[in-house]
Amino acid sequence: MKPVLTIENLCAEATRFAEIESIYDEPTLYGVTDGKAIGTYLEHKFTAYLAQNYSYQPGNSASGIDLPALEVDIKVTSTKQPQSSCPFKSATQKVFGLGYHLLVFVYDKYDDHENKTGRLDMQHTIFVDKDRTGDFQTTKGITDILSRDGNKDDIVAFIIERNLPVDEIGASQLADRILESSPNQGYLTISNALQWRLQYSRVIQQAGSIPGIVRIR
Length: 217
Hints:
3-stranded antiparallel sheet, single chain, elongated, PvuII Endonuclease, Chain A, alpha+beta, 22% strand, 2 domains, 4-stranded mixed sheet
């Protein structure tokens, strides 16, 4: 029987995997510049690596994330522009977080033209707790309003000013929830789109110095 995968050993295996991958020359990656193709390659390789030693529930289109039992989604991004997309569910994700943790691999790719291989040198491997996956400026603004004794009208006005994708009723309901439970400070930059656009520069900068943002390699 294989042991059940936990977040603790997921992070440990991510460290080992990143070290192995950083010195691995892959012929199928030679000349590839499509970030989505590189991300798919690395995600599949990592989940196959995990499956050799652990029992876990793989993701599917219904769950929307890679490791649903652990509430973890795997993200792969280039150090040149550390960002990726994720499914849009509701505007509350910008305030209260995505609803799941992130395991982020940040690579620097280079090609060996003599041997016609590509290599992904892993620059950063970071685990982001779901409590830290809200939008930085949105959560900071809300926290500032609450610290100055702001009321529901102030919060609704802020939600509208920030162009969160909600109507008036949604803004009112979101403001009520914020007043009931102040959101944690998020560290992603989340851009509005049909899919959320997640940007990781601040996560990379803050990893290891903020609770919930762990630099595992």
